[in-house]
From TrEMBL:
<dbReference type="GO" id="GO:0005886">
    <property type="term" value="C:plasma membrane"/>
</dbReference>
<dbReference type="InterPro" id="IPR011527">
    <property type="entry name" value="ABC1_TM_dom"/>
</dbReference>
<dbReference type="Pfam" id="PF00664">
    <property type="entry name" value="ABC_membrane"/>
</dbReference>
<feature type="domain" description="ABC transmembrane type-1">
    <location>
        <begin position="19"/>
        <end position="288"/>
    </location>
</feature>
<dbReference type="InterPro" id="IPR039421">
    <property type="entry name" value="Type_1_exporter"/>
</dbReference>
<keyword id="KW-0067">ATP-binding</keyword>
<dbReference type="GO" id="GO:0005524">
    <property type="term" value="F:ATP binding"/>
</dbReference>
<dbReference type="Pfam" id="PF00005">
    <property type="entry name" value="ABC_tran"/>
</dbReference>
<protein>
    <submittedName>
        <fullName>Thiol reductant ABC exporter subunit CydC</fullName>
    </submittedName>
</protein>
<feature type="transmembrane region" description="Helical">
    <location>
        <begin position="249"/>
        <end position="282"/>
    </location>
</feature>
<dbReference type="InterPro" id="IPR036640">
    <property type="entry name" value="ABC1_TM_sf"/>
</dbReference>
<feature type="transmembrane region" description="Helical">
    <location>
        <begin position="156"/>
        <end position="179"/>
    </location>
</feature>
<dbReference type="GO" id="GO:0045454">
    <property type="term" value="P:cell redox homeostasis"/>
</dbReference>
<dbReference type="InterPro" id="IPR003439">
    <property type="entry name" value="ABC_transporter-like_ATP-bd"/>
</dbReference>
<keyword id="KW-1133">Transmembrane helix</keyword>
<dbReference type="GO" id="GO:0016887">
    <property type="term" value="F:ATP hydrolysis activity"/>
</dbReference>
<dbReference type="GO" id="GO:0034040">
    <property type="term" value="F:ATPase-coupled lipid transmembrane transporter activity"/>
</dbReference>
Amino acid sequence: MKELAVLSKAMMQERKDILLSILCGFIAGTAGVALFSASGYLISQTVFAPPLYTLIVLTSMVKLLGFVRAASRYGERLASHRATFSILSRLRTSFFAKLIPVTPGILNKNRSGDLLARIVGDVESLQHYFLRVAYPPIMVVMVFLSTVLFTAVFSFWIACLLIVGMLITAFVVPNLVLIGQRKINEHVRQQRAKLSTEVTEVLYGFRDLKVYGQLAERERQLQQDSAELATQQQRAATQLVLGQSMHVFVTYLVTWGVLVISAFLIADGVFAGVYLAMLILATQTMFEESAAMAVLPAYKLDSENAAKRLAETVPDQQNKGYDDQSHSSSKTHLSLEVDAEGEAVTIELSHVSFQYEGEWRSALNDVSLYLAPGSKTAIVGASGSGKSTILDLLLKLRTPAAGKIKFNAISVNEWNETNIWQNTRAVLQQSHFFRGTIRDNLLLSGESHSDEYVQDILHQVQLFNTSLDDSVYEKGENLSDGEKQRLALARAMLRKGRLWLLDEPTSSLDYVTEARVLQNLLTQAVEDTLLLVCHRLTGLERMDQIVVMDQGQIVETGSFEELMERKGYFYEMKKIELQMIGEQGA
Ligand SMILES: Nc1ncnc2c1ncn2[C@@H]1O[C@H](COP(=O)(O)OP(=O)(O)OP(=O)(O)O)[C@@H](O)[C@H]1O
């Protein structure tokens, strides 16, 4: 299965531990069979009152085998679990590395709860692949072959019976379990995804659900989904137990068979009766060692489904794109970083179009735009006209369907996205706040600024009563929208970079505060390239260029005066705004 390739690669990297666990597992398995065989022989021998030295040799052998079995089992567990956890850690790292560059696209397609279930549940499911799918058959075959060889010395028929029993436990029983598991497993997975999606939505929308009186209904739904998941899991567990019971049943059936054949052979004088207990115990121990085979298909199915879903989440094409990007970036070593004397960034969009996945109409249609180094540009336009999408494309969070984007005359494909993020002062429409202090939330990239400097920036964004040690709750619950916006702006002001990409950074502020904040912002960014997406049209007189957008297209471009003189779209928007804020005639 192609999707399991990443797993095989991770297993190859842990081959030392894997080989060690196979070796220890083989020693433990054969020592187990030998231990019980020797015990059976010892018990039978004592009946004939053998010489003392025989008993001493036999008991010492039993003790020694017991010790070897315990020590090698310990070694096996240690090496196999170490390999499993290393594989798990490699899987997590590789999955996240692939996930991060394509996150916006993924969040578009998947509900966050489902995504969480995939990331946590599916990656964890893959850890079972080595321990419960790849490893047991190797062990079972090795222990089985040595036991069959050993029993063949006594009787060809007993060896044949063991082979038949082994085929039943290794193929028939697991396949019966698999038939039942296939259906149940898929249900469990779907139900788990549904439950985590519901839980996430209730947590995120708790307040709205409460205010709109939907909380009780949602809770009832959650309980129902949770009960359904428990039922499905119970069915899956019952199936597994059934498989294990069938395994035990076959073990006893074969043991009876060995007993009957041995009885005949002993009666015929083929071998002495003293070996009977030894053969019975060897048979039972061998099947005990292969008990893991009964549950193997369930884990195999689970791992394959998990790998498939993870591959769907981060499809190959996206992986390829990511690898190619990293490759080309590392080749060219481009850096957006510019020193204080260096030029600010030039941006050029030519004939750029973009369509969100699953949407029938384009969010951007043939957009061309030039931002000169150090220029100040504002993008205005109706809601949904594509303003934020332009910022997403510039931040390489999404890839245009057509057209070219260039930074400093070099295609954006050549730039490493991390480099763009590190050297851009971006404020997105929704900024996330983490639980911690104001200081933690401002210096997210670990910038080292003195408290005085940070406090000064807070003053520039008109936050005079905020202390750096004030607490911030999860998702910034204890901050107003205006405070969040100003903190996000302060965050950007504390970063380095000569490019500012700001998406409605002051939309929740009152006019007076907004004007002061923008004034300070423009002072700090005086020599930098700045792109400001905004709804309000106040303060745009200071911009070098205003771009007006409608339905994914640029409908007007020019300075404030030019657009007002043109009496077009912008002029009409400005007129409406003035009417709204009652400034007409002022
Ligand atoms: N994640 C998404 N998936 C699908 N369609 C989207 C997504 N984000 C935006 N769109 C659509 O793309 C179009 C442009 O959206 P965009 O957010 O760029 O507009 P905007 O001008 O920034 O709007 P606003 O001023 O309301 O923020 C809209 O029609 C919107 O419905």
